[in-house]
Amino acid sequence: MERHFHEQLQHLKNTLIEMADQVENAIANAIEALVDQDKDIAQNVIDMDDKINMLEIRIDNESLKLLATQQPMAVDLRFITSAMKINNDLERMGDHAVNIAQRAAMLCSQNHLKPLNNIPKMAEITQSMVKDSLSSFVTEDVKKARDVCERDDQVDQLDALLFRELLSEMMNDKENVPKAINYLLISKNLERIADLSTNISEEVIFIVKAKTIKHHLNASDLEDIRSRS
Question: What pTM does this model have?
Answer without folding.
Answer: 0.87
